[in-house]
Amino acid sequence: MHTLTFRTATVADIDALVALVTSAYRGDASRVGWTTEADLLDGTRIDPDILRQDILRDRSLVLLAERDGELIACAHISDEGDAGYFGMFSVSPTLQGSGVGKQLMREAERIVREQWGHALMRMTVIDVRAELIAFYERRGYRRTGVIKPFPYGDARFGIPLRDDLRFEVLEKTLDAAP
Asked: Helices 48-56 and 14-25 meet at what angle, rounded to 10?
């Protein structure tokens, strides 16, 4: 197996990031993996302008995982003041289940803990995604019971195919480095 390398995205990576994130969550290509939202949402998964803002904003970065120079996974992390935020977690559908995502998640948690000094990571997950919530729970995240509305009517976040979508906040206490 080839070594996985990590780097921070630049604006030059936006097109490749949009393609990766879309392949992991939308359309028929996403059905190869288990993270698809194709039955819940249509349209875009990530807006290039929002992605550009996330890349350029202070204490916000898009972490890339590459193998042999090929982009295979990404995640957005940012500083929320009292915690780090983890989102836009995407692994190429053909590599889901291979351990790439777990390595990327560990690196994101390490950055938030060691570089930004946070002991807590937070994320939001569409609450009807039971298998995805279970994945995060196996990695130490817990359901908080905090619910946030889905941005219905804002096509930058996709076109809902059902009317019961909402986000639940998950949190994880980040252990000190071994």
From this structure: 120
SS (H, E, C) 102-157: HHHHHHHHHHHHHHCCCCEEEEEEECCCHHHHHHHHHCCCEEEEEEEECCCCCHHH
**CB-based burial label for 62 (10 Å; 0-12, 13-18, 19+):** buried
pTM for the whole structure: 0.91
pLDDT in tens, 89-133: 999 999 998 999 999 999 999 999 999 999 999 999 999 999 999
The span from the CA of 39 to the CA of 123, in Å, is 22
Task: Write down how long the chain is.
Answer: 178
